TrEMBL record:
<dbReference type="GO" id="GO:0004029">
    <property type="term" value="F:aldehyde dehydrogenase (NAD+) activity"/>
</dbReference>
<protein>
    <recommendedName>
        <fullName>aldehyde dehydrogenase (NAD(+))</fullName>
        <ecNumber>1.2.1.3</ecNumber>
    </recommendedName>
</protein>
<dbReference type="InterPro" id="IPR015590">
    <property type="entry name" value="Aldehyde_DH_dom"/>
</dbReference>
<feature type="domain" description="Aldehyde dehydrogenase">
    <location>
        <begin position="23"/>
        <end position="489"/>
    </location>
</feature>
<dbReference type="InterPro" id="IPR029510">
    <property type="entry name" value="Ald_DH_CS_GLU"/>
</dbReference>
<comment type="subunit">
    <text>Homotetramer.</text>
</comment>
<dbReference type="InterPro" id="IPR016161">
    <property type="entry name" value="Ald_DH/histidinol_DH"/>
</dbReference>
<dbReference type="InterPro" id="IPR016163">
    <property type="entry name" value="Ald_DH_C"/>
</dbReference>
<comment type="similarity">
    <text>Belongs to the aldehyde dehydrogenase family.</text>
</comment>
<feature type="active site">
    <location>
        <position position="261"/>
    </location>
</feature>
<dbReference type="InterPro" id="IPR044638">
    <property type="entry name" value="ALDH7A1-like"/>
</dbReference>
<keyword id="KW-0520">NAD</keyword>
<dbReference type="InterPro" id="IPR016162">
    <property type="entry name" value="Ald_DH_N"/>
</dbReference>
<keyword id="KW-0560">Oxidoreductase</keyword>
<dbReference type="Pfam" id="PF00171">
    <property type="entry name" value="Aldedh"/>
</dbReference>
Length: 508
């Protein structure tokens, strides 16, 4: 791992405040990054202090004045080169993601691939930031709209996607002409330091002004500083619903824009007409992938009574095959949770479920002994539960899967929608009528609704995000770029008179 850290520019103690190629001195404390894989200390990062933050904001403001004037396709060309650099560093960066965050190596590589994909998408987008042309009601007038760069975009990200979520925002923001200030999760600061080194090299080669890509390191208080900073017109925040409520309120109070990507409580409906073998793979990957620490993790299965027992037996058999251990060993399916605090939450949720009447058909527990020294490895477990249990309504960021039974399709949709969150959902069925009803306005209330694939994972081409307590934000593909720009409506009069709209008369 030492070779990889060196290659990615990480030393024993790293500066955590950067405006691009420059790393600014800060006098603050340090954050320690420990790997959940083996419990070992990886490196320290110096926290951004108030002075460092001001220096970054000053530089970001200056950089925006220049960057907004670059033609968008030229900005796209720089982002194309960022994608090339990420291709070059895919292996070491993917390994660092896996080592610092604990997800499987395949998923670490997948995360870097997602960064490459969004950069490629953004390159094309840089020539397509279209506005509309409208017909004016006044003769000799032309009306159209254009999209202008917005300014400084604050990005607050969660630990579970330590690099991809930032790139979803940054790649689009850059082609839109914005500059970014990124505060990564305090649990995964090294992934951010590595990304900053990779981007800075490309930016320097292209004479991109210092201050277009900024990183600041700190905990919740630094996130609050960003949320309250009136110089930041857009704050994109990914994390828990608790965090989103605080950020949304702070940004709203100053009438800024927020893009919130918060917790999920995702369900799959297993119809009696499902291909059960195919459904099994989607459910197991969705429930145990990233050790249940994806916002799109499958947390609930709503199973038709006719196939309930047979599908439950398949699941129990599949869980017996799971190999839990070092995520960098590609033979393992499930890695560790992020830290011991997450392990405590997992244990408390199991207890709570039992108290409410839940019956565990696959028991949970913390693994001990050789290979599990970090104390962060837990057993994925399955409980039979009722939809109204408090714990079932709550997102526990761990591999706990709840099974529920249904009789009618309407009942299944009501259970699926009957939680505060609204991120991802799916139905496994070969029945066309059911599939279409699930996707109709009377079906799933989530931002993502799938048929015959699981809830977990998404491609960058679609807009990503969810409703209700998931926060309502949309990132990544489709027209998600619009939130990073300001819309301006222009009306031009090319006549010699000045007719007013709505036929209003005003003579001097
Ligand atoms: P978290 O809310 O604890 O922290 C996320 C980030 O917010 C961190 O950088 C943290 O420092 C910062 N933060 C915390 N409180 C803040 C506040 N009051 N003001 C400003 N910043 C604050 O979340 P986490 O444990 O890192 O991540 C797990 C959560 O993220 C889960 O709920 C998961 O579902 C969610 N998530 C959602 C998506 C999505 O796209 N919907 C994607 C990934 C993760």
């Amino acid at each position: 791992m030492q070779d990889i850290l060196t290659l990615l520019g990480i030393t024993d103690t790293n500066k955590g405040t950067s405006t691009g190629a420059q790393w600014l001195a800060s006098t603050g404390q340090t954050i320690t990054s420990n790997s959940p894989v083996n419990g070992q200390h990886i490196a320290n990062v110096v926290v951004t202090d108030a002075e460092g933050y001001e220096a970054v904001m000053q530089k970001a403001g200056e950089a925006f004045q220049e960057w907004r004037l670059w033609p968008s396709p030229k900005r796209g060309e720089v982002v194309r080169q960022v994608a090339e650099a990420l291709r070059k560093y895919k292996e070491p960066l993917g390994k660092l993601v896996s080592y610092e965050m604990g997800k499987s190596l395949q998923e670490g590589y997948g995360e870097v691939q997602e960064m490459i994909d969004i950069c490629d998408f953004a390159v094309g987008l840089s020539r397509q930031l279209h506005g509309l042309t409208m017909h004016s009601e006044r003769p000799g007038h032309r009306m159209y709209e254009q999209w202008h760069p917005l300014g400084v975009v604050g990005i607050i990200s969660a630990f579970n996607f330590p690099v991809a979520v930032w790139s979803w925002n940054a790649a689009l923001a850059w082609v839109c002409g914005d500059v970014c200030v990124w505060k990564p999760s305090e649990k995964t600061p090294l992934c951010a330091i590595a990304c900053q080194h990779i981007v800075a090299e490309v930016f320097a080669k292209n004479n991109v002004p210092e201050g277009v890509c900024n990183v600041v390191i700190g905990e919740r208080d630094l996130g609050e500083r960003i949320a309250n900073d009136t110089r930041i017109p857009l704050v994109s925040a990914t994390g828990s619903t608790r965090m989103g409520k605080a950020v949304g309120a702070a940004v709203g109070a100053r009438l800024g824009r927020s893009l919130l990507e918060l917790g999920g409580n995702n369900a799959i409906i297993i119809s009696k007409d499902a291909d059960l073998d195919m459904a099994l793979i989607g459910c197991v990957f969705g429930a145990v992938g990233t050790a249940g620490q994806r916002c799109t993790t499958t947390r609930r299965l709503i199973i038709h009574e006719d196939v309930y027992d047979s599908f439950k037996n398949k699941l129990v058999a599949a869980y017996k095959q799971l190999r839990i251990g070092d995520p960098l060993d590609q033979n393992n399916h499930v890695g560790p949770l992020i830290d011991k605090g997450a392990v405590d939450q997992y244990l408390q949720s199991i207890e709570k479920c039992k108290k409410e009447g839940g019956q565990f058909v696959v028991e949970g527990g913390v693994l001990e002994g050789s290979g599990y020294e970090s104390g962060c490895y837990v057993k994925p477990c399955i409980a039979e539960a009722q939809p109204n249990y408090e714990i079932v309504q709550h997102e526990t960021f761990a591999p706990i899967l709840y099974l529920m039974k249904y009789k009618t399709f309407e009942e299944a949709v009501a259970i699926q929608n009957g939680v505060p969150q609204g991120l991802s959902s799916s139905i496994m069925t070969l029945n066309l009528r059911e599939a279409e009803q699930f996707l109709s306005s009377a079906g799933s209330d989530c931002g993502i609704a799938n048929v015959n694939i699981g809830t977990s994972g998404a491609e960058i081409g679609g807009a990503f995000g969810g409703e209700k307590e998931t926060g309502g934000g949309r990132e990544s593909g489709s027209d998600a770029w619009r939130i990073y720009m300001r819309r301006q409506t222009n009306t031009i009069n090319y006549t010699t008179s000045l007719p007013l709209a709505q036929g209003i008369k005003f003579d001097l």
